[in-house]
């Protein structure tokens, strides 16, 4: 398939993939299939998808570099915009939950720290979504890059918001934090290591460890639980999978994907050299 066609189909598939959670939610809302607390479930689902798409948008650059697959550049923007839109719908559902009383919503956002940081993250995501077009890129010139650097603190705030609202069940938030650690650590690796197996193995180890540290630190600071117990839980086979195990699994999956892609590329090169080139060079 030509590169243009690949990009076209990748963009269409991405658009469908980004819309599916919203379609599913609307359908379940319409058919009364959201359980006894539909608004709470919808708040949680939209928040979760906002974080998933936010992390995916941050994963585009590392994946493009490690998989050496340029078409991914063409879907980064729409994944980031989807994250902002899901977060906006998440806020709107919260507003609906407060019976559209904007004064109550504003007071709650000011009063509750986890809502305040969620709101700041949302403002940043919306600013990035609006200015993500090439028109804004030209208008803002060098400031565009500076502005879009905001994605990192915005993601950190969104994950902190996730942690705080999770109360004692922080498993999913710790998993998101571990993946975020992977994505940030990849960016601070020396360029040579970023695409090497050694770099990816180091990243897998560091992100897994970071997840254990996040989990242990959270339970120690918020619930006064001995960090050694969290460490022991991560080594207990009865308690699999912990967030750190999931981060390790994703990191290993990335390495396998990179290996598979490189193997396929090497096989294609060998095939071309052995069978295609001799045919072409024959007069
Ligand atoms: C003004 C902005 C925001 C408001 C008012 C808000 C409000 C809420 C509320 C009320 C909850 C549920 C809390 C509970 O059930 O106890 C929640 C959960 C959550 N929010 Fe937000 N949020 C905002 C921004 C964001 C943003 C920007 C993101 C991500 C990009 C986000 C991601 C999440 C996630 C992941 C959850 C947890 C879902 C789960 O537990 O499955 N929120 N938020």
Structural summary, described in words:
The model has no long low-confidence stretch (mean pLDDT 95). The protein has two domains: 166 residues, no CATH class; 114 residues, no CATH class. It has 13 helices and no strands. By secondary structure, it is mostly helical. It is 84% helix and 0% strand. The chain binds protoporphyrin IX containing FE (HEM). The site of protoporphyrin IX containing FE has 24 residues, from helix 2, helix 3, helix 5 and helix 8.
Task: Write a compact overview of the structure shown.
The protein is an all-alpha fold and 283 residues long.
| Structure classification | mainly alpha
> What is the rounded Rg?
22 Å
Major pleated sheet: none
Number of domains: 2
Mean of pLDDT: 95
Question: Strand portion, in percent?
Answer: under 5%
Number of strands: 0
Helix-residue proportion: over 70%
Q: Report the order of strands and helices.
A: HHHHHHHHHHHHH
Instruction: Specify the number of helices.
Output: 13
Are any ligands bound, and if so which? protoporphyrin IX containing FE
Q: Provide the low-confidence segments as ranges.
A: none
| Large-scale geometry | globular
> How far do the termini sit from each other?
27 Å
């Amino acid at each position: 398939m030509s590169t243009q066609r690949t990009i076209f189909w990748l963009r269409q598939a991405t658009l469908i993939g980004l819309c599916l959670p919203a379609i599913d939610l609307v359908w379940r809302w319409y058919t009364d299939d959201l359980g006894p607390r539909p608004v709470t479930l919808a708040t949680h689902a939209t928040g979760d998808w906002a974080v998933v798409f936010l992390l995916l948008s941050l994963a585009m650059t590392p994946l493009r570099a490690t998989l050496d697959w340029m078409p991914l550049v063409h879907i980064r923007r729409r994944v980031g915009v989807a994250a902002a839109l899901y977060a906006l719908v998440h806020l709107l559902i919260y507003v609906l939950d407060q019976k559209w009383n904007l004064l109550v919503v504003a007071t709650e956002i000011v009063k509750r720290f986890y809502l305040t940081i969620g709101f700041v993250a949302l403002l940043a995501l919306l600013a990035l979504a609006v200015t993500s077009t090439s028109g804004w890129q030209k208008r803002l010139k060098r400031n565009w890059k500076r502005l879009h650097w905001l994605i990192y603190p915005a993601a950190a705030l969104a994950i902190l918001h996730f942690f705080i609202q999770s109360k004692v069940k922080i498993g999913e938030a710790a998993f998101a934090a571990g993946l975020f650690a992977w994505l940030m650590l990849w960016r601070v690796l020396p360029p040579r290591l970023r695409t090497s197996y050694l770099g990816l193995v180091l990243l897998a180890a560091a992100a897994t460890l970071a997840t254990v540290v996040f989990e242990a630190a959270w339970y120690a600071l918020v619930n006064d639980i001995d960090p050694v117990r969290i460490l022991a839980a991560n080594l207990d086979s009865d308690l699999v999978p912990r967030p750190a195990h999931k981060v390790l699994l994703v990191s290993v999956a990335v390495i396998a994907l990179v290996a598979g892609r490189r193997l396929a590329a090497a096989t294609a090169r060998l095939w071309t050299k052995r069978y295609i080139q001799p045919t072409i060079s024959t007069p």
